[in-house]
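Input C-alpha cells:
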C-alpha cells in the first residue's frame, strides 16, 4: 500500500544552523515532508541551498520582526574561550537564544526546541552550567505549548568541516571518552551531534508541555 501524502504545513525557524548540531537540524528540517518553510537565522548564511530555505542574516541583539512560524529551534552556542569573556559567552548562549525565542513566539510559534547541555542548572556555581540552566528556566517562563530541551553530554562531530575553530579540550576529551566512555553512566557518554538533532527534529511536534532529553534517551530516540 502506498503511504498517504503528507501535507507540508509547518513553518519553522532555526538559530545556529551553521553549528555542530544546527547543521544536522537544518538538513533534517528541510527533509521533513510536513515542513513547508525553514527560516535560518544567523550572523552568516548557511552554505546549504534549498527551495524551502530562507536565510535571514541578523543581529541577535536587534532582531527584526520574524515571518510567521509554528516552532523554533535554538542551537546557538559558543565557549568562554572562543567568545573571549563570560559576558560575551552569555550574549550568545543566553541572550541571543532567548531573544530568538521571544521573536518567534511573537511571530506565532508555540513550540520551542533547545540544545542545552548535560549539567545545566540555574543554581550551579559553574558559570557554564548556570547560564545553560538559566536559559532553560527563562524559556519555561515564556510558557510555550511545547518546550523540548536536549541536554547532551560531550558532542561528537567534526567542527573543522564546518569551518569552525577547533576546541582543543573537546577534541582531547572526545578521543579519551571514545576509549573509556563505555564505563561511564549512559547519560554521560559522548553522543553524535546528528543524534541530538534527530531527537529534537523528530520529537518536538509530538511533545506537548516541557520535556527534557538526556544523552541516554537521545541515543534511543535519535
Amino acid at each position: 500500500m502506498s503511504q498517504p501524502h503528507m501535507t507540508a504545513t509547518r513553518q519553522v525557524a532555526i538559530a545556529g544552523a551553521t553549528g555542530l548540531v544546527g547543521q544536522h537540524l537544518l538538513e533534517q528540517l528541510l527533509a521533513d515532508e510536513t515542513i513547508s518553510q525553514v527560516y535560518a537565522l544567523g550572523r552568516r548564511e548557511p552554505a546549504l541551498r534549498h527551495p524551502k530555505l530562507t536565510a535571514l542574516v541578523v543581529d541577535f541583539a536587534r532582531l527584526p520582526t520574524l515571518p510567521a512560524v509554528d516552532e523554533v529551534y535554538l542551537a546557538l552556542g559558543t565557549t568562554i574561550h572562543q567568545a573571549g569573556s563570560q559576558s560575551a559567552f552569555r550574549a550568545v548562549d543566553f541572550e541571543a537564544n532567548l531573544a530568538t525565542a521571544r521573536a518567534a513566539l511573537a511571530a506565532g510559534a508555540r513550540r520551542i526546541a533547545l540544545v542545552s547541555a548535560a549539567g545545566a542548572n540555574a543554581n550551579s556555581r559553574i558559570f557554564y552550567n548556570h547560564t545553560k540552566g538559566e536559559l532553560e528556566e527563562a524559556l519555561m517562563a515564556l510558557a510555550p505549548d511545547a518546550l523540548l530541551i536536549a541536554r547532551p553530554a560531550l558532542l561528537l562531530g567534526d567542527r573543522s568541516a564546518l569551518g569552525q575553530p577547533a576546541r582543543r579540550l573537546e577534541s582531547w576529551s572526545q578521543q579519551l571518552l571514545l576509549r573509556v566512555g563505555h564505563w561511564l553512566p549512559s547519560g554521560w557518554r559522548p553522543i553524535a551531534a546528528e543524534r541530538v538533532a534527530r531527537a529534537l527534529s523528530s520529537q518536538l511536534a509530538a511533545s506537548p508541555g516541557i520535556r527534557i532529553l538526556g544523552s541516554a534517551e537521545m541515543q534511543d530516540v535519535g
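Residues 86-106 form the longest helix (21 residues). The chain has one domain: 10-221.
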